[in-house]
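Researcher: Please translate sequence to structure tokens.
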Amino acid sequence: MFRRLIVGLAAAAVAVTATVASAGPGPGYFASDNVEFVTHVPLNNDSAGARLVGDHFYITSSRGLLIYDVSDPVNPKQLSFLPLFQTPYFAEEDPDTNGSILLVGGLDRYLHVIDVEDKTNPQVIGKLLGADSHTTTCVLNCRWAYNSGGDIIDLRDPTEPKIAGSWSRGSPAGSAHDVTEVAPGIVMTSSSPMLLLDARKDPAKPKLIASVRDLEPRYIHGNHWPRAMKDDFLLVQGETTSGASTCGDEEDGSFMTFDATKWRKTRSFRMIDEMRLGTGLPTDGKMPLGTFCAHWFEVHPSFRNGGLVAMAWYENGSHFLRVSNKGKISHDGYFLPAAGSTSAIYWVTDEIAYTVDYNRGIDILRYTGKP
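Model: Translation complete:
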């Protein structure tokens, strides 16, 4: 009897293992067959966001700024650490830089302008009280900056930053979660409604040239317009606190595609498709319950009127989505780490991606599917 029980349990274990193996499990994670775990970067936990410029990866934690040399993308080397205390757990999640100066807020309510020319020795060279907004974005090669609170910051002398105006004053949107420079001097606000602003002629007084309306009550988190506005699609993502919901309910955050081919004529954008992840099992790349729905995303370097998108999805890890040449969205793969809360994901090469996780720090992944 005992022998038969042991044999039966062993057979059941094999069956369970076989089922999980089809989803590509590993030590401490689940992944689809087209996503490989390469390595974990130690001692970089409590991170929320980063920026890749050339061969350098700039990443924040609640303790400061770290700079990595990623010329060998699977073996990043830390070059420096600049102590700069930020909100515990929720450090600057969208630091921006042109490779010369970098913008980060701090617990002291200052916007810090950091000289990063010498990657081994970053230094704060300018500070602006009251300009510490949730996110701050470089405009026109970091000679200006727009923040999510509506401030326009003059950085032409980075040692003496100053408020030069407001992009939100008198506009239909009072603030935004983020502002994205979609082409040099043209920015799209992640707000409701979303605003397309032309700052090329007068960065202190941008001109409203188009908008994305009828998105209420969605909370718009981020946007990309690939290839500096030359692409047919504007990509938009919403973030929602799920609470007891499933992150698959209609009111929850989704990834959206918009037709960007007629905006000059219509001054607006039409939604084509949207996708919500929903809940499920780790073997499907999903969790039964999540804290938030969707977060930062990035298009693959080969994206051209459709292609691959990588998105961070909090407890649901990282997911790879595919946009067709008609703007339709499908699911392509995933990486779900144990005890993770993934904030952002970045393409370092056409197959290597870095995930930035509030709990884990950096995981390095290799995407082996068709880009």
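Researcher: Any highlights?
Model: The mean pLDDT is 90.
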